[in-house]
Amino acid sequence: MEEINKKIIKVARTKSGVPCLWESLMSFTDLKRSTIIVNKDGNPKPAFFINPDREKQALVPIAVGDRICKCFEDKNGIAISVFQIEEISHMKNEAIITPIYRKSSLVTDYTVPADFSKIVNSALSKFKNTEGRVISLPKINFKHED
Prior knowledge:
The chain is mainly beta and 146 residues long. It has one domain (2-128): Immunoglobulin-like. It has one helix and nine strands; from the N terminus they run βββββββββα. Strands 1, 2, 3, 4, 5, 6, 7, 8 and 9 form a nine-stranded antiparallel sheet that branches. Strand 8 (77-88) and strand 9 form a beta hairpin. The protein is globular and about 40 Å long.
């Protein structure tokens, strides 16, 4: 029965093959959608690429155990889904995720369980900031060894 909840998603990869997902913010006249990626403790991860002026704002490397939070806001309220990355394919640009928290309608701090409040508050903060603040940490700096 738990196989029904598993979902296969597409992942991006860097030129060197590191699996990644995009932190994003999309705003329409009647709908906002945000996606953030954090580690298993709910802390932001460093990104390979950051551009807060685009829909795809930060390219974030992913690992098994990381969490993805997707939030949607429209005239009826807010819907939140938190997923955990269970597996990342080495052969395909795919990952398997499972939902670990879902809530729809108007969400307040009082309705979000403590385990998910950090990631949910981060995702919701993207809605409140008209510049679409990037949640991921500053870019990863590559050091070339000679």
